[in-house]
Specification:
By secondary structure, the protein is mainly β. It has strands at residues 2-7, 10-15, 19-23, 32-35, 38-42, 47-49, 58-68, 72-78, 83-89, 92-102.
């Protein structure tokens, strides 16, 4: 059984016991949450598709860790004019374990 959920402006395919890295969620570590923006759910034989979301279907999860992702460097460079800019960015993330999929 799997589902497709939407969170943080992105879509994720999830199964029970999956561990995902998502954009930071406002809840604290150890908190149990429910994703209610479920776009699709399938058990292998039946497929339910929402328009845009399925009503009454939730995906239960637990926040394992809050933190920051790897640093990325952003370089800007213009040739022949001595223009160089280097910036770094670390995205805030939440690591989540999927506990249940269903109604």
């Amino acid at each position: 059984m799997f589902a497709i959920i939407k969170t943080g402006g992105k879509q994720y395919k999830v199964k029970k016991d999956d561990i995902l890295t998502l954009e930071k969620l406002p809840q604290k570590e150890g908190a149990e949450i429910a994703f209610d923006q479920v776009l699709l759910i399938s058990n292998g034989q039946n497929l339910e598709l929402g328009k845009p979301y399925l009503k009454g279907v939730k995906v239960g999860a637990k926040i394992l860790k809050q933190g920051k992702a790897e640093k990325i460097n952003v370089m800007k460079f213009k040739n022949k004019v001595r223009y160089r800019r280097k910036r770094g960015h670390r995205q805030l993330i939440s690591q989540v374990k999927i506990l249940s999929i269903g109604k």
